[in-house]
What we know:
Blueprint: H1 2-18, H2 35-44, E1 47-50, H3 61-80, E2 86-92, H4 128-145, E3 150-155, E4 158-159, H5 178-189, E5 208-209, H6 210-217
Parallel strand pairs: 1-2, 2-3, 4-5
Amino acid sequence: PEGHSDERLAFERLFDTRVHILEGDVSLMKLGLPNEEYQFLCMNIDVVVHAAAKVNLLLPYEGLQNANVRGTAHVIEFAQNGKIKALHYVSTDGVFPEAGDKPASGPSSWHFEEDAEDPPPPGELKSGYGQTKWVAEQLVKAASKAGLPAAVYRLGNLSGPLPGQGSGREGVWNTLDANLHFWAACIRVQAVPELSPGAAGQLRLEMTPVDFVARFIV
């Protein structure tokens, strides 16, 4: 629609004046940036939002360690170098065991407070992704205890924007997201998976609108 085109152009103009993109790699020393540029940013940046990660639920810990653990260590180093910068680390609720997993010892089921500071040991986690994010959280926690202003956000599944916010101004759904493909397939074939006999409850999937998350963190 014409109105959306005008909004898009206005957004692009604002983006060009407010956002500066630098190509780097958190898994590399100095974030993969030239030394002069890295040092300039160390002295002039006020706040760091660290959302860079390699997301893969099939790879083992070793396949994700470089991006998710070493990358976080490099971002912490950046936040501590030169001017101290507040660090906002985007983690995951995957630092907790998945539904259906049972503790190795103790009670027969898990129970966690939403803001629990100490999730279970990483050995209780099945996915390498969850394990790397668990370790990365510990790095942020250690840096915070050493004096770095830091916050951790444990996100679940992100979806598209809230209803009425779909013009693209407030964010869009990641087109590679498995949940999006799942729901699209259900709509396309007009069917949903049938739960196996004896399965408790119904098929449920939590999702948080991406624009809500962005506004909360920023």
